[in-house]
Amino acid sequence: MALTAQLSCLLVLMVSGQAHGFWNSPGAQGSGPQPLELKEVFKMFQIQFNRSYSNPTEHARRLDIFAHNLIRAQRLQEEDLGTAEFGVTPFSDLTEEEFDQLYGNWRAAGGDFSMERKVGSEDWGELVPHTCDWRKKPGIISPIKNQENCQSCWAMAAAGNIEAQWGIKSHQSVELSVQELLDCGRCGDGCQGGFIWDAFITVLNNSGLASEKDYPYLGRAKPNRCLAKKYTKVAWIQDFIMLSDNEEIIARYLATQGPITVTINKALLQNYQRGVIKATSTTCDPQLVDHCVLLVGFGKSKAEKTVSSGSCHPSRSTPFWILKNSWGAHWGEKGYFRLHKGSNACGITKYPITARVDRPVKKQQVICPP
Fold this sequence. Notes:
This protein has 370 residues and is an alpha+beta fold. The protein has helices at 2-16, 19-22, 36-48, 56-79, 96-103, 153-170, 178-184, 196-205, 247-257; strands at 85-86, 117-118, 132-133, 209-210, 233-235, 237-243, 260-264, 272-274, 276-277, 291-300, 305-308, 311-314, 319-324, 336-340, 353-357. Strands 3, 7, 9, 10, 13 and 14 form a 6-stranded mixed sheet that branches. Mean pLDDT is 85; it is low at 12-33 and 305-309. This is Cathepsin W.
């Protein structure tokens, strides 16, 4: 944590000082000596995230990309309407194009599969609590995973959804195989992206899902080597549904039934550090969703007093969603992030999908009378 604080401090010095004038073009690295602050920030970034480069030319190129990302982070900081902080992250030496190629999932939007939305149900309860955080209930939310260089967010979100729903209904904690979903999916190309609904259909077709311990994650897919029949199933689903695009209905289901999967626009996440992202449709288009995550809770940030014109004014608290990501615990808020609740931030209401779990029904034995 101390290193991250130093990085943030140096970022302020770099962005507010000479970097704006120096880093004004993609080829700026060859125009003279680098600012000392930037070199130090980049060196610390390499240490913290274990980065090394094959040659001096590649090092210089990554330094240039790093500088532009810090300036972009500063711009996002100024544009955000919430409490989000942007700066150095594990992805600060990647271009936006590289980040999209590694972590984007344009197939996540749902393809041509049509699902009827569930508008609401009396079984979900009438009142929505002020706060909800399923992380606080033991055995429901599994540890943060890292998809690495595999576009498996869809499989990780789906597995996380089933884990949570299974834990709530059966009171048994399970950690499920993401690799089985990658290897055995019908429509996805494994690490080339996939669909939430395809993951659920895979579980139905395979009559359950194996454990992570038995069928561990490899960070690469083997689509022609589905090993589903080899391992014992530890969780099952009966079907899956898509909820209404109404945030209050989503909140009610989340509070009374458990975590669900959502598909969002990840545009602001490359540089995200902490806080509540309150984006506009310009900075984070709600129609261009390309990343699947697990929605685990909601709440409100504490109101803070602000001083202006010599007077002290109370500010309003910020409502937010809590989401579980799949980029490791060193990203964001220990692997999680928060989006503003009530403004369809980054398209969170576009595809809210959840499995409904249950044990398989035992078939009754038919005996012919003598």
